[in-house]
Write a structure and sequence with these properties.
Helix content is 55%, strand content 25%. By secondary structure, it is an alpha+beta fold. The chain has one domain.
Amino acid sequence: MLPDEIQISTPEGPQSITVEEFLALPLSQRVSHVLRGTARFFAGGEEIEGKKALAAVWEAKTQQEQQRQQQRQQH
């Protein structure tokens, strides 16, 4: 299930970000949040397991990249 919200724990308190904003973070920060358990993933207001959320995000990102490549090849 693809998350629609990600909560990141920061020194200032929890911060809600979108999947796109999460993916825009440097890889080292994303990995750090996941490994330290400071990232929580939600879909439709329900928390989902991080491993499943990350797999869904990765799959969606891969599909988007494939679609972009196909569009470039058509032009």
